[in-house]
Design a protein that fits this description.
Blueprint lengths: L12 E6 L5 E5 L8 E6 L7 E5 L1 E4 L2 E6 L8 E7 L2 E2 L1 E6 L14 E8 L5 E8 L2 E10 L2 E9 L8 E6 L2 E8 L4 E7 H4 L8 E8 L7 E4 L17 E2 L4 E6 L5 E6 L1
Parallel strand pairs: 1-9, 12-18
Antiparallel strand pairs: 1-2, 2-6, 3-4, 3-7, 5-6, 7-8, 7-11, 10-11, 12-13, 13-16, 14-15, 14-17, 15-16, 17-18, 17-21, 19-20, 20-21
């Protein structure tokens, strides 16, 4: 369980419970008058994308709304509102989503309620199909090895991992079983001169020759933003420094700095 941060004054406060299937229950600590709804609004969507969840009395001066796992929630960040008021994050019970195993069919979905930087409640949603879930990272001499699990596809002949920067792509072979993968990326492959500024190489997996590439990410736990949480050892090379890192969307990259 995690606590909350400061929130806009006067905002209703919601405790959240996330389940392993992707559902979230919102328990608001006020007995709201009228037929109000909890609105989830996807940030940056144009036109506006909303999911409206009825609020019902739950006793003890509380009102409750439920987001079932069967309700579609597009990938992105969804801010919570009651009427025109943003919702304050209360206690968030997200234990059920830690190291969960998705359903065998359909795209992988993940939803994590979290406090925004300005103290509001939001839900981070991912929808990936197929999906390459990053696992352990290990380090050798001037290289990193990524292990992970595949969902919605299988590893086949000619599998490769790709490091992408703009239109430049470097490939290395990928190995593993049908639903697992591993690959090793030498840092010298992506740290070629001239190197005059920081570069962020995206890591992708092509599970078989001719298959579509899949972004390598880590979304199957309770961490909504890994960028400043997961920090890996930095290798000092000839004129560069390199280390794996995650983006704010939990996608795996290799950062190369002059």
């Amino acid at each position: 369980m995690t606590g909350s941060t400061a929130a806009p004054q006067g905002a209703p406060r919601a405790d959240c419970v996330a389940d392993s299937a992707g559902g979230i229950t919102f328990d608001i600590a006020v007995d709201l008058p009228g037929e109000l709804v909890l609105v989830l609004r996807r940030r940056g969507a144009d036109p506006v994308d909303e999911v409206r969840l009825p609020l019902t009395p739950a006793g003890g001066g509380h009102s409750r709304a439920a987001l079932p796992s069967t309700v579609e929630l597009a990938e992105g960040r969804w801010d919570a509102y009651v009427g025109d008021l943003p919702v304050e994050p209360g206690v968030r019970d997200v234990r059920a989503v830690v190291d969960r195993v998705p359903e065998a069919t359909g795209p992988v979905t993940a939803r994590v309620p979290y406090p925004t930087a300005d103290g509001r409640l939001a839900v981070r949603s991912w929808v990936r199909g197929p999906h390459a879930e990053a696992g352990d990272l290990t380090f050798g001499e001037a290289c990193c090895t990524v292990e992970g699990t595949l969902y919605g596809t299988e590893l086949g002949a000619g599998a490769t991992a790709e490091a992408r920067l703009g239109g430049t792509v470097h490939r290395v072979p990928a190995d593993g079983e049908k639903d697992t993968f591993t690959f090793t990326l030498p840092y010298d492959l992506v740290a070629k001169p001239p190197l005059d500024k920081q570069q962020l190489w995206e890591l992708w997996l092509r599970p078989a020759e001719g298959a579509d590439a899949i972004r390598v990410s880590r979304i199957l736990d309770d961490v909504w933003d890994r960028k400043n949480v997961f920090v890996y050892p930095e290798h000092q090379g000839d004129g560069y420094r390199a280390a794996p890192c995650y983006t704010t969307d939990n996608d795996l990259c290799v950062r190369v700095t002059p």
